Amino acid sequence: MSKHTSVSAEIRNEQKKALKDMSLKGKLMYFWDYYKVHTLVALLLIGVVVGITRDIINAKDYIFYASMINSYNLDSEAIASDFAAYADLDTEKYNCYIDTSSTLDLDSFSEYDIATTQMLMALVQTGDLDVMVSNADIFTNYAESEMFLDLRTVYTEEELAPYKDHLYYVDFAVITAKNENPVSVMDTPELTDAERAAITEGHRHPETMKTPVPVGIFMDDSAFIKATGSYPLRPVIFGIVASTGKPENAKAYLEYLWTTAGPEAK
Fold first, then answer.
1. Alpha-carbon distance 241 to 167, whole Å?
2. Does the N-terminal or the C-terminal CB of the chain have fewer CB atoms within 10 Å?
């Protein structure tokens, strides 16, 4: 037996003798003094495990998920509940979630902006994100990354007719050329507000494009956007995410935004 082992055994024996004559309160105080760090860590770990287990048990798949980037003064739960009722979605078995709190600024691109970008990409990759609504600069950035569906693949010509004067187009020929010859961010010139407005306006005119593809809807005449004042810095654009597995619910959300003033008007 090593000298270290014998010393440890002697210490344990002395501790046992000391504890033997202590009251219950004294034993608890002794235990807390010597083992409080271990106890707190153990309790924290137990809490984390219980929390994760509870979330897994209670987790429900999304029946619909929309992200309204840079929106203003919207009640996420109220809108989700109102839309679920409008579209007759089963919220007993599934989650309907409308994200109204995320913001994104491509100019400042702070840590929060990076986190929002990463969250959006994760939702796209998992197929959870169905719709994105945002101001024009944000929408254009993602549209040029082919994030949105060609609306002609989910709408018939008759279904698109009410929105024909509000379609947002990208030129797929330009996107293909950029993919073949990518431009460094460092080489991208900083645009004035007037130049940005001109670029946004250009997305309304397919006649100027070689291969125009409708991927969004300008929400100028949306009853919801007008009534809520949720996007004071317009234009704002609606798009259906290419990886969605629930295009019919996404179409219902466009109809909801286009024709209703939202839950607060009721």
1. 16
2. N
